[in-house]
Amino acid sequence: MRNQIALFLLGTTLGLALSQPAHALDENVVLQKMDRIPVFTFLNEKSSPVLVAPPKGAKTSATQIAYFFLSKQELADFQNVLQKSNPTLAKSVKAKALPLGKALEFGKENKKNKLAIEILPAQSSLRYALKLAQEKEKSLKIYPGIPVFALTDKSEKNVLGVKQNGQTVQPFFFDSQDAERTFAALKQKNPELAKNTKISVIPFQKLFDVLRQTKDAKEADRITIVASSESLQYARTLNSTAKK
User: Fold this and answer.
1) Number of domains the chain contains
2) Closest CA to 35 of 108, 110, 98
3) Other CB atoms within 10 A of residue 173 CB
4) Which of its termini does the chain have fewer beta carbons within 10 Å around, N or C?
5) Pairing of strands 94-99, 38-43
6) DSSP letter string, 188-216
């Protein structure tokens, strides 16, 4: 998005909360939209995501969990845990990048089998999201859900848009650092607009619901979910290595 900062608009009409329209977008269309975002996981010998038991005390009815990670570091941390807790299993699995839409679809299809999925963001994004959320709720200790970040007006009702390929889009970032870099670039290019702009955070589930409630695909296309450049590069490297 960096090369398009000069084309920031004064605001767009999408709020962070929408009323239910008469005709909602098909959920499969929304899932396909998520395919541009890579998530990382470990696959077993059958090329299925590795399943583990829920942590002790976890509030879930699922008997098994498949973990998907939005950052390279979180994947590495999970691998370290797996090597210590189950070294035999750790030797038999392979790291792989998959589309987020496929991960969500996997969880949806296997929910009846008491299988859940957990999508874990970068810790730095979680910390930044909690900091923003605590500005409204000081007692909050953990950010509720997967955070996505956007540049909004001070009321948080309007998301700032950019011109991309002749169309106005509204970027939502999984990585807080991407949102910060975008905001810093906006301050340089359009300081007056930046004065009335802030970085806002909402749970990914809420954004997903907004997309599902959108009236048509063209309107949904205005919402662009941005993966970090680091994740995109790692996904290419990981999958290229896996093919060899």
Assistant:
1) 2
2) 98
3) 25
4) C
5) antiparallel
6) HH-HHHHHTEEEEEEEHHHHHHHHHT-SS
- In angstroms, the CA 133 to CA 141 distance is 10
Query: 66, 99, 120 — which closes off a domain?
Result: 120
Q: What type of residue is 163?
A: K
136 with 173, same domain?
yes
> Are 139 and 20 within one domain?
yes
82 contacts 72 by C-beta, under 8 angstroms: no
- What kind and span of H or E run contains 96? strand 94-99
CB 149 within 8 A of CB 200: yes
Q: What's 49's domain CATH number?
A: 3.40.1350.100
Show the tokens assigned to 135: 């500005």
Give the helix ranges, DSSP H, for the chain.
Answer: 27-33, 72-85, 87-92, 100-110, 123-134, 176-189, 191-195, 204-212, 217-221, 229-243
pLDDT in tens, 28-66: 888 888 999 999 999 998 999 999 888 877 777 788 999
Which of these three, 120, 152, 182, is where a domain ends? 120
The reply to whether 85 and 205 lie within a common domain is: no
Helix, coil or strand: residue 64: strand
> Tokens for 178?
């991407």
42 and 24 within one domain: no
Look up residue 200 and give its two tokens. 């806002």
Under 8 Å CB-to-CB from 217, ≥6 apart: which residues?
Answer: 25, 29
SS3 155: coil
pLDDT at 160 over 80: yes
- Residue 19 sits in the same domain as residue 139: yes
Pairwise CA distance, residues 138 & 144, whole Å: 14
